[in-house]
Design brief:
Chain A has about 200 residues and is α+β, with helices and mostly antiparallel strands. Chain A has one domain. Helices cover about 35% and strands about 25% of the residues of chain A. Chain A is built from seven helices and five strands; from the N terminus they run ααβαββββαααα. A five-stranded antiparallel sheet of chain A has the order 1-2-3-4-5, sandwiched between helices. In chain A, a hairpin with a 5-residue loop joins strand 4 and strand 5. Chain A is globular, with a radius of gyration of 18 Å. By secondary structure, chain B is mainly beta. Chain B has a single domain, classed as Porin, CATH 2.40.160. In chain B, about 5% of the residues lie in helices and about 60% in strands. Chain B has two helices and 16 strands. The model of chain B has no long low-confidence stretch (mean pLDDT about 90). Classes of the chains: A alpha+beta (about 200), B mainly beta (about 325). Chains A and B meet through helix 1, helix 2, strand 1, strand 2 and strand 4 of A and strand 1, strand 2 and strand 3 of B.
Amino acid sequence: MKIVIVLILFVFSLQNAYAEAYCSLRDPVAQIKKLYPQKTNQLSIVKTVDTHTRNQVKLALPSNDLHFSELGQHTLYVAMKNTQALGYIHVRSEQSKWGLVEIIWALDKNLRIIDFSFQRCRSPKRKMIDNESFKSVFIGKNYEELKILLSSDGITAKSILLEKAGNAPELASVVLRCALKTLLITDVLWGEELKKFNP
Amino acid sequence: MRMFLLLLVLFSVSSYGEFSDNLRWSLDASVRLNKDIAANNTSRIYALGLDTHKIFSFASGDIGYAVGQLYFTKLSNQMPFSSLFNSPDDEQFVIREAHFNYTASPKWWPNIRIGHFTLPFGLEESIDTNGRLLDYYHGKNLGTKLDWGLGLNKVMSPIEYNISYTLGGKDQPKSIDGSYVFSGRIGSLSHYDFIIGLSFLAAKIDNIQRKRFAIDWQYYWQTWGFLGELALGKEDEFQQEWQKEKYCLLELNNTLINEQLKLYGQYIFNDREGEHQNHQLINIGVSYQMDAKLELSISSRKQLSTPESGKKQNLVRFQLRYRY
């Protein structure tokens, strides 16, 4: 019983909550390979998204919050070609009316978007992501450049993006909010550590 | 077991960064209340465990990851009880998953897993049910859910596979009376909205030989999911004669858009040669994730067909689970 009490005291000093057992964790190996076909391996860096991070998101992006599944420990992947870092992969979820939409973001070493794809999207309009015209709005942009595309309500994308989204304006706004949170959280939590890959 | 610990020490010493880097751990506590209405019995299961996940890396990339789950489990008037326990009120330290998966193999070479892991077969391969009321009856169908051994796995562009050879000792890392389990599954990628997989199993556990082939699928449409597993096989208890067996599980589930409330209904059919009639069950469950830490779940299982004993199974379960 003493062992149990020691375990409780020890673990209660930590903040590592994750709703599902860790044996269910899976790396998005196939998607990383698709976004970085030339990579030979990936380097994982795990950081904790906590209430402090959540408050920073709320402050930087008013009217926005993080879903509870977005709290806890998350992995940023560095796509490696032998010992050289090609860029980063970050998976983020955003709530939508079709449940959580999970998007895999490929970022360059200056935290600009290179590419992205859905890991999970149950919207009947998910094929919008294959539209090059829609995708091109995001590619090459950083956090500040994408934030300009968000309306003053903090939720909806501006017409310059919605025009490219055809009949899927709601999904376009979901993708934009997810991009902004991804770039912000990557910088806030991983930024310092990633400097060694971009001297 | 020693081999597994030795591997962890070796990778810890040679890996890049501090041991605490890329280490996840959570305290996982649960209380489960079971009301067996047919047998007029109420039982409880208390579990308190440490769930850990550690990624080992070199400067050039990840080498692999380890999962370790040690649970102190206490039964109270639990009937029937698992073979891990000695009485309805027993308490034991139980190792759930404890394995290392080496992922740094070159291009087409598979990852190599060693340790105590869930047998790769059917729906359980892509939907983890450890510590949940949701169940795909892996242990009941295959003879054990987890076993000690070696496996090969890989996610490639159109498919993923997982094949393992384990010792059949269940919680013990050894072969008992010639026990073994050879199982595997190959399927489409598990993040798609439509997933299909084929599984096989050849095993001897507790002197019972089993052979199985199965097809499983998952189809998701918006917030709905339609899942199924169909298995055909045969079983030979105590080396008498092979008896054919058919098994089918169908599930319809719905998840609210905020992912907090999940509902599911299952229909399970089992037909075994030599038995007077088949077994049919329905299982209805709800789980509510209050936040990232606290989950409440309830399920009700009812037997549709009348067994030889005349008592239809009628079980209601409630679970409170807290992860910190």
